[in-house]
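Cross-check.
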Amino acid sequence: MNEVVRDPEILGGVPVFRGTRVPIRNLFDYLVSGSTVKDFLEDFPSVSFEQVRQMLQAAEVAMEGQAA
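Predicted model, tokenized:
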């Protein structure tokens, strides 16, 4: 997925959304806590809806692969 960047110069290599300093983990933390994608996007305006959509699609595919 090209929306994820791991660069030791950005937050010590924590995976972030491309073009931001927002960790991918933040999205999943929001969702697990009961917040919505809309809440996340409002709090992190540097992340686009398309980036979130692609991340959630990739997570869904990864989870389907684990269920097999």
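Residues 58 and 64 are 10 Å apart (CA to CA). The two ends are 22 Å apart (CA to CA). Passed to J.P. for a second look.
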